[in-house]
Amino acid sequence: MELLISTGLILVLIFMGMSVPFCFLSGSLFYAFLSGASTGGYVSTAFNAHTHGVLAIPLFMIAGTLIEKSGIAKTLIDLGELMLRRFKGGMGATIPVVSAFFGALSGSGTATVTTMGTMLTPRLEELGWDRRYLSAFIAAAGPLGYMIPPNMNAIIYTTVSSASVAALFLATVIPGIIWLALYLIINRLTYKQWYKVPESVEKQTVQSSLNDPALMEPVKKTSSLSIVIDSIPAFLMPVIIMGGIYSGIFSATEAGAVGCLYALIVGIAYYKKIKLRDVFKTFLNTGNSLGSILIMFPMTLMFSRILVVNNVPAMLTEFITGFSTNRLVILLIIDIVLIFAGCFLDVGVLLLVFTPLLLPTASLIGLTQVQLGVMMFVAVGVGTITPPMAMNLFIAGKICDVELKDMLKPLVPFLLFAALPMMFLVTYFPELSLWLPRLVLGAIN
Amino acid sequence: MSRTKEIFERLEKRLYQVVSNLLGIAMIALTGIILVQVFARYVLNVSIGGFEELPLYLMIISVWLAAPFVARRDQHVKIDLLNLVIKNDRVNKFIEAVLRLITTVALSSFFVLCVKFVATSRQYGDVTPGLQIPFWMIQSVLVFSTFMMSFYYILLTIKSFKEAIKWNS
Amino acid sequence: SGGDSGDGDNGDGGDDGKVYEWKMGTIYNDPVSRPDFNAFGESMQTFIDLVNERSEGRIVITPFYNSVLGASGELYDQMRRGELEVFYGQPMSNIDPRFGVFNLPYIMSDYDQVLELVANPDGELYKLGQELVADNGGHLVSSGASLFRGFFNTKKRVATVDDMEGLKVRTYEDPIVHQFWAGISNAAPMPYSEVYTGLQTNAVDGLEFAATSVVSSKFYEVGKFYSDINWQWTWGANIIISQEKWDELPDDLKQIVSDAAWEAMEVQYELESANTSKAIDELKNNGVEVYNLTDEERATWIDYARSLDETFAEEIGEETVQRVLDAIASLE
Ligand code: NA
Ligand code: NA
């Protein structure tokens, strides 16, 4: 009862707009106040909340920024435009494609949204695309940033489960590619209402042999060949990072640091874009944003421990299996719980609070920790674009200067026909997640 | 009155700059140590000994050091939903004030718990496995952090109550 | 504190009506979800079942397996602070360096010695453990036979210390474990969850591990060599109750808890020794070469271990080490 009231309090406070980490802190303290339970373990839990795996977050955040500053991200965009200039649906398709490219270098969905928002929006808007569409699409494509490995969320997931990072990285590849394909199809079908030929381009088009102005390639000053050559260092990066991890040279967490070093070297020596002043600023800004991202961990873990101590995971298992003993129905319930929770909760909360809650149910119905992980990651991706708590929408909206309510209409098709179906695909077709890691690693523990 | 306020603001700004720079240095050190560790292990076939644990503690310290400065601007992750539902600015200001008050109470209670926790840690005298750093020293950052956060939220609470009342009249 | 009579009257006075609701935390696996090769988990569950049953509801212990309440050091810390009533596991040496004395390499020669000195209410080393734990906020109710650790790897048969050269060995944050392996191999700490794929990707070549754990973690799927170097007996099966929680218990319940704790340790020993031979068979069935060291080969390991004695004694404290050495000498 006390637990229910505290949980309710947390949700109400979140809704009313109180800072989320402190909602959880208040909820934990309020629980102790109501039930007379000891608060003595809270600080210990908070202090121990940051484990070695969490180090991946600052490292991948820094790497993401350095990739943008180094000129690697720009090369990826040039290349994406080059590849897609004859693709129906026009330059809008660069959003998911470049997000996936970027994802091969970065482990973070947030960094992907930030970089795409900053770098792609001005270019596409110039070509006649509606900001509202751009911001919604960029937000929706954010999850590709981690579905294509490296995957920061996978590293966090291993801190609360016993799945291995190497298997998890491979598990999201095929779902990530399907997700990308769905976005391309949706873009192809819906882009026309969000695209208007700018006047400057219209004049040229009249004389052009092309009928569809959205196919117009952007004004190119550099040749295709130089774009391809310039992108070589960018494509070397995933080779080095993934190669390093799978040949056992460094761990997934360490890969973040290697990514930083690589982006720095390429940015200074090859693209000659990075200034030393920017480097310090990048590290400093990351240090600052840690204060808002990682403070979530201790605050939510305190409440998560309260749930565990009160046997909520077992109760949840009982509750879910009480509905039905049919495995397919249980999976559906898990999906619904995750999607619903994703509306209100932040990425970190979802991974850290719900994984321990769902593990007993998963083990009961023979759901492997790797597959549960992929389900969690897709749920996290869905959660980042479902209001009210929708991190990717917030970031994309802020960068593109679009209000949240204006993003909803263009967002709906991406959510209904790509993100949510992905959730059910990875739930009901385990081979989508398990086939590749089994192929590469031989067996999954 | 405004003179002390000015001095205080300057002091606070200075502290922010110092901590900010510390954070930048901590992040560079963290990344650097991990790179050295990879290099030492893979190329030199040696381990860097106790230093392996340092990045983790640098991160923990950074997180708790940075949190108050996010609090200062009330920029911790939150949902802006109420503004869409309730159109009355005065009501919204009042709700904001109450939420900040709750945050202040929660943070200052947590501050007290942190002080107690670090005090017992000092008695126990545990050290980190690698570099033998006393744990209570690292844990002290929680005391600093929660103190500063409580302090900033007191200011924020007062500010929004003042604004709410101003609208009232 | 009273409670001198127990005539069944559940009145207000005394603590005869009081129900002690305890949490018991461990890093070991839940025997329900991991029934095989899990002597630690089984013995913890035995303890809980016995106490809950014999106390007739006056003590209710709820288990928390799989580190859900925190890692080993954190669990011990919670126990010491009275936030966790019971801890099952190994007191780590960063809490008190003297705890390391039980984990010195090649200090225990076999289970007989362990049963005599440690897994025994009158054992000299159980008493030492009790003193050390008492200095660190806990009451050591019972100590078990725990297990010996061999060496498992993907590369080659390991017989002597020299065979270790160039092998990448997984260790963890424990000074003795790390220093021992760093002296003869390329040792690096790695989280346990990464070991399986680490062996697959050659991030590590091997690790020191008990045969039963190699089987239960299915490492035999990715590596082919096991040697019974038995370099370390670990002080891994201990039931420790927070001192303040122990003190508030009436004498009859103390007796029930203590009896149950020792019986649980008997279960741990019986299961572990039965499991070890079963595990060896299982390893062989799965194509793992199980190598039993000759006396000469074992001597190279023991010599190496003795060369570290001074370093370890300095870290642990001469006096504590001497007590252990004396206790072992008194057996012979
Ligand atoms: Na990625
Ligand atoms: Na959401």
From TrEMBL, chain A:
Keyword Disulfide bond: no
InterPro entries cross-referenced by the UniProt entry: DctM (IPR010656), TRAP_DctM (IPR004681)
Protein name: TRAP transporter large permease
Membrane topology annotation: Multi-pass membrane protein
Record keywords, A-Z: Cell inner membrane, Cell membrane, Membrane, Transmembrane, Transmembrane helix
Domain of life per record: Bacteria
Gene Ontology MF term list: transmembrane transporter activity
Stretches assigned to the TRAP C4-dicarboxylate transport system permease DctM subunit domain: 8-432
Record's subcellular location: Cell inner membrane
Gene Ontology CC terms, in alphabetical order: plasma membrane
Residue stretches spanning the membrane: 54-77, 97-121, 133-149, 155-186, 225-249, 255-271, 283-308, 328-358, 370-391, 411-429
From TrEMBL, chain B:
Keywords: Cell inner membrane, Cell membrane, Membrane, Transmembrane, Transmembrane helix, Transport
Primary location class: membrane
Entry keyword Membrane: yes
All residue ranges annotated as the Tripartite ATP-independent periplasmic transporters DctQ component domain in the record: 30-161
Keyword Transmembrane applies: yes
Transmembrane segments: 21-42, 54-71, 97-119, 131-156
Domain of life according to the entry: Bacteria
InterPro entries in UniProt: DctQ (IPR055348), TRAP_DctQ (IPR007387)
Name of the protein in its database record: TRAP transporter small permease
Family, similarity comment: Belongs to the TRAP transporter small permease family.
Lineage, opening ranks: Bacteria, Bacillati, Bacillota, Clostridia, Eubacteriales
A Pfam family recorded for this sequence: DctQ
Organism field: Alkalibacter rhizosphaerae
Gene Ontology annotations for the cellular component aspect, listed alphabetically: plasma membrane
Topology relative to the membrane: Multi-pass membrane protein
Protein's cellular compartments: Cell inner membrane
